[in-house]
Design a protein that fits this description.
It is globular and about 45 Å long. By secondary structure, it is an alpha+beta fold. Strand 1, helix 1 and strand 2 form a beta-alpha-beta unit. 26% of the residues lie in helices and 23% in strands. The longest helix is centred in the C-terminal third of the chain and has 22 residues. A seven-stranded mixed beta sheet has the order 1-2-3-7-6-5-4, sandwiched between helices. Helix 3 packs across helix 5 and helix 4 crosses helix 5.
């Protein structure tokens, strides 16, 4: 059982390393988690919040390697979130990821993940903390006619159970724990393959993720492409810069 703030409607059952609390009303949950980490929040602190038809969770992590390779924690978070979503949705519809951090369901953009780290941290320095967060579109009722936003979908539209924030956070926390266990016990390459199993790739392509999280893609015609990780984390493609939530 975890400790939570008194205004939380119900307890969550998470792995022992986690402590959950509600985010401030209408807060940017990712930004609040980063502030909390900067102020000394313990690793495993998990914030949960809902605003503007989206649900967001963010967790404070304790990296043990320099920033450049530590950013690979994004893949642990993305795999855990993709698997958590899949556990509540129709089994015949897979959750897929567009490089490196956008979640799609049933051909629609459902949400995405973010990674935060201390301002000014050097690439070769172990950061004091990391924050992984994920935001999902819970409902698009506030957006009007769904035909106006055909590129996105929502948990509600796709038939997911109502009031999913708590159960999703519980599942995510268990899977994130498993992800880091796989990384520690079997090596990053095994975890990376779990992530790659969800990734949208050109037909016939062969891929690997290197020591700093960049993806190398080998096409059937022998062309090789490099998809760097760090630049795209600075401005997540799935995030609307005006609303601060998932693009509709």
């Amino acid at each position: 059982m975890i400790s939570i703030s008194e205004d939380r409607p119900a307890d969550l059952i998470l792995p022992p390393a986690f402590t959950a609390r509600m985010a401030e009303p209408a807060a940017d949950v990712h930004a609040q988690a980063c502030r909390s980490a900067e102020e000394g929040a313990e690793p495993g602190t998990l914030l949960l919040g809902e605003r503007d038809g989206t649900v967001t969770l963010a967790v404070v992590l304790a990296p043990d390697e320099p920033l450049a390779p530590a950013r690979r924690a994004l893949f642990a978070g993305m795999w855990a979130m993709a698997e958590a979503i899949g556990g509540f949705g129709p089994p015949e519809i897979p959750v897929v990821i567009a490089w490196p951090d956008t979640l799609h369901f049933n051909q629609g953009r459902l949400g995405g993940g973010r990674l935060g780290w201390p301002d000014g941290c050097r690439e070769d320095t172990v950061p004091d903390w990391l924050v992984f967060s994920a935001s999902l579109i819970a409902s698009k009722r506030h957006a009007g006619d769904p035909g106006l936003t055909p590129d996105s979908t929502s948990l509600e539209e796709e038939g997911f159970p109502p009031d999913l924030a708590g159960p999703l956070a519980e599942s995510f926390a268990r899977l994130l724990t498993k992800a880091f266990e796989i990384w520690s016990e079997d090596g990053f390459s095994v975890l990376a393959q779990r992530y790659l199993d969800h990734l949208v790739l050109p037909p016939g392509a062969r891929v690997e993720i290197d020591a700093v999280g960049d993806l190398r893609l080998h096409r059937p015609d022998a062309q090789v492409e490099s998809w760097p990780l760090q630049p795209v984390l600075d401005v997540p493609a799935w995030r609307d810069p005006y609303t601060g939530t998932v693009r509709l």
